[in-house]
Amino acid sequence: MGSRVSEVELPPLFCPLESAVHPRARQIEKRAEEWIARSGMCASEEELAWVVATHSTDFYARFVPDADDDRLLATALWVYWGFGFDDARCDRGPLSTRPAQFNALACQVQRACENDTAAGADRYIGALRDIVRLFRSLGTPAQVGRFAHAHRAWLSGVAWQVGNQALGRMPGLNDFLTMRLLSAGGEPTFAMLEIADGAEVPDRDLYRPAVRALKEMAILVAALDNDRHSLPKERARDQADQNIYTVLMHERDLTLQQAVEAANGLRDRVLLRFLRLHDRVRPTAGPELAAYLRGLRHGIRGNNEWGLRVPRYLSLGRWPDAMEDTALTWAQEPSDTRPGPLEGAPDVAWWWDDDLA
């Protein structure tokens, strides 16, 4: 589905992956909305409306279409929480350009993720504690530990982003991609696959270089797609700061339209590498790893099916609009098929190593 943003053409996305959604997503979403209203994490009706309008159940129902209802509910709650925390404390809140204060809060938040009795006055801390308690009741210690580790990685990336904003620093492409792998929230989002599916991937599989590369590529494709989804809103509100377009415009002296085209090509090259490496890994995967790889595929596709419709990105007013239920048009071919690592991004060049196993 192409769209125009102040005379900038956003091309349709190439995404040749299977589509799926949990059959009871709408019923589970109602349970999630009731929980959020009771949680105390939203300070106003407006904030509550925007958190609910992320439709995070619809989002995660596309990652884990076969999950048990209670497991989908628990993991979707963290997605709502993450979007709310990101809006109130990371992107636009009073701490978004105050790294010292943000880091202090981030440490309290992370401690609540790891310890049931952790204290903290911030209204998001108690809600997170309750969500992680649900995780502990549903998942194994290893699964919950992996989530906590991924949560710390996310907060570290956000801290990097907040530091850049405080300094008025625009990162180069290599730094940006490395930061975005963390700050986009993909680490905890994909770590929850195991909790939602109830399948614990053996360490020997999960930490294989090829599987780590697949996870990172899935995170980056989704993160770049989210930069695309959020561009209309950021342009309308004059909020755009660190995203793939501003980075490319700054580093390569491009217009916004040129940056959109360059970013789309970069993203397609990563997705093509994901598909090729996935097809090498999948045939020998055991059942737990196969479920995890399926979640990565569903996540890339589902993130787009959600992001191209959700009020979080499409609503430009003070209050969110209704969720759009429109047919989506996809690109039939990738916009850039060049093989090999991305130019100017040495920190992710290892994804193209021939000996990944």
From TrEMBL:
InterPro entries linked to this entry: Isoprenoid_synthase_dom_sf, Terpene_cyclase-like_2
Keyword Cytoplasm part of the UniProt annotation: no
Signal peptide: none
Pfam families the record matches: Terpene_syn_C_2
Gene3D superfamilies (alphabetical): Farnesyl Diphosphate Synthase (1.10.600.10)
Cofactor: Mg(2+)
EC number in record: 4.2.3.-
Keywords: Lyase, Magnesium, Metal-binding
Family the UniProt entry places it in: Belongs to the terpene synthase family.
Protein name: Terpene synthase
